[in-house]
């Protein structure tokens, strides 16, 4: 298949491109810089900030995966930062959706990244793809982000909104940020520690995205999480155990809110007990359902190539 990927320089995108290419697919990567004609992966330039994307020059595309967006964890959320986070997702998704819908022979599927932040702070409530959106900046952003693909959906393209949980990988994201305080014996639970954290391993993200391409039963929102969410206090205990360090220094909620503001509240203290009902219903098999196992794999064990496709 000929597969278009945006956001290929990020943690998920780079692994996905390597895996797709290894599996024999022809990958075309959307880039915001000048195209490198000698790149191993074919490149195609676009500029979503200014609506510049001449998709007519792409040729046939069988599937498209859009992962782009400014990091939500780059510091406190000022008004300007929040606008950038939201618009980088909405604007690029809308442009890609419109471009693909306008092709004479559009792709069969468009997969757009989203997030479990869609659900807001929901306490003990079990959350599935049928659950309504919550409140807060991330929830509002996710609602607009997913709606930005409506043009493709209305054109008959199967659109999937992959609502990512916390991705477990030594290459970046949550683990990279949290292992430092634990390694220096300064780790501990955040707030009460009772908040639910829906997580997923990076290998399962990559396998799941590949699975979505070929499974026509899946459309609309799909929770990309392991079937076993954990509370923050359990996550803390497992991190401490994996790194053989104590977990004495919990951070009270008021301190998190004072230091990190709205970003700290939504990313560290919100509770999202999300379950991947759609993936489970179609028989998707996770490589990692045990957080203890994936933490050991990512933080202790030598890099495993059992899931293939990477170098």
Mind explaining what this structure looks like?
The chain is of the alpha/beta class. It has one domain (2-299): NAD(P)-binding Rossmann-like Domain (Rossmann fold). Helix content is 38%, strand content 17%. The protein has helices spanning 11-22, 79-101, 137-147, 150-154, 173-183, 202-214, 232-243, 253-269, 277-281, 291-299, and strands spanning 2-6, 26-31, 42-45, 63-66, 109-115, 126-127, 158-164, 166-168, 196-197, 199-201, 220-224, 230-231, 273-274. Residues 302-311 have low confidence and may be disordered.
List key phrases describing it:
311 residues; alpha/beta; two-stranded parallel ribbon
Q: What is the element string, with H for helices and E for strands?
A: EHEEEHEEHHEEHEEHEEHHEHH
CATH class: Alpha Beta
Rounded mean pLDDT score: 92
Q: Total strand count, please?
A: 13
Largest sheet: 7 strands, parallel
- Order of strands across the main sheet: 3-2-1-4-5-7-11
CATH H-level superfamily: NAD(P)-binding Rossmann-like Domain
Low-pLDDT stretches are 302-311
How far apart, in Å, are the first and last alpha carbons?
Answer: 21 Å
- Overall SS class: alpha/beta
Do you know the CATH topology?
Rossmann fold
Number of domains as seen in the coordinates: 1
Task: Give the overall shape, derived from the CA principal axes.
Answer: globular
Helix % is 25-40%
Q: Tell me the β content.
A: 15-25%
Number of helical segments with 4 or more residues = 10
Query: Based on the structure given, which CATH architecture is correct?
Result: 3-Layer(aba) Sandwich
Our Rg estimate from Cα atoms comes to: 19 Å
């Amino acid at each position: 298949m000929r597969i278009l990927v945006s956001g290929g320089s990020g943690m998920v995108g780079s692994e996905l491109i390597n895996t797709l290419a290894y599996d024999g697919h022809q990958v075309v990567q959307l880039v915001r810089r000048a195209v490198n004609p000698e790149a191993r992966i074919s490149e195609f330039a676009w500029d979503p900030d200014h609506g510049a994307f001449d998709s007519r020059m792409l040729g046939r595309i069988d599937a498209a995966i859009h992962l782009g967006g400014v990091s939500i964890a780059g510091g406190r959320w000022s008004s300007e930062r929040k606008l950038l986070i939201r618009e980088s997702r909405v604007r690029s998704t809308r442009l890609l959706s419109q471009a693909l819908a306008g092709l004479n022979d559009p792709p069969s599927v468009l997969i757009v990244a989203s997030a479990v932040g869609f659900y807001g702070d929901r306490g003990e409530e079990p959350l599935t793809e049928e659950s309504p959106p919550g409140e807060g900046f991330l929830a509002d952003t996710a609602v607009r982000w997913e709606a930005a693909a409506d043009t493709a959906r209305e054109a008959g393209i199967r659109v999937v909104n992959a609502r990512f949980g916390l991705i477990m990988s030594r290459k970046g994201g949550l683990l990279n940020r949290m292992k430092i305080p634990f390694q220096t014996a300064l780790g501990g639970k955040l707030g009460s520690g009772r908040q639910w954290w829906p997580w997923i391993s990076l290998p399962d993200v990559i396998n799941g995205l590949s699975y979505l391409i070929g499974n026509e039963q899946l459309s609309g929102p799909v929770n990309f999480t392991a079937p076993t969410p954990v509370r923050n206090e359990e996550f803390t205990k497992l991190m401490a155990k994996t790194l053989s360090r104590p977990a004495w220094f919990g951070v009270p909620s008021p301190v998190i809110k004072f230091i990190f503001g709205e970003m700290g509240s939504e990313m560290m203290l919100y509770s999202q007990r999300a379950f991947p009902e759609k993936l489970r219903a179609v028989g998707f098999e996770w490589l990692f359902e045990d957080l203890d196992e994936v933490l050991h794999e990512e933080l202790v064990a030598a890099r495993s190539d059992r899931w293939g496709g990477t170098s």
